[in-house]
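This entry is passed on directly below:
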Amino acid sequence: MDFLVQLAEGFIGMFEEGGQTFIGMVTGIIPTLICLITAVNAIIKMVGEERINKLALKSTKNIILRYSLFPFLAVFFLTNPMAYTFGRFLPEHQKPAFYDSAVSFVHPITGLFPHGNPAELFVYMGIASGITTLGLSLGPLAIRFFIVGLIVILIRGIVTEIITGRLIKKREQELASQS
């Protein structure tokens, strides 16, 4: 009988915890996101979408900058998850690779710039506590983490762009053969 009571309490407790998480989002991240979205859209309207689009296209012409500097700027200035909105200024065939790069960078930026993704800070701090327990400095860890992150997002961006290009060509060939 106690087992059934514990099972029922655990079952309801799971939904209560989910409700608390939801309330935390409603009073925490959701208003922040709405404010960020509003601010970014206001800036875009003031500067002009056409100008921003041209700037983004110019800054992403080079494949290395497109999948290193551009995602870094997105995560640094807009933080996670708003950083992904930078992709709106890219041609459709580059959006999947940009997203892959940006989403892969929200953790490595945390050591040097914790504002980029504060939700990931607990992972970094777990690693950092082991480093500090050994009496070592966190600076080299943060820098290495950041540099490796930039290398990884560059590789992921390039590979994803290649894969996306092949899938687009394959789809175009399939559609052409059906016509």
In short: The chain is about 75% helix and 0% strand. Residues 48-177 form one domain. The helical segments are 2-27, 29-47, 49-59, 63-66, 69-78, 95-105, 121-133, 138-178.
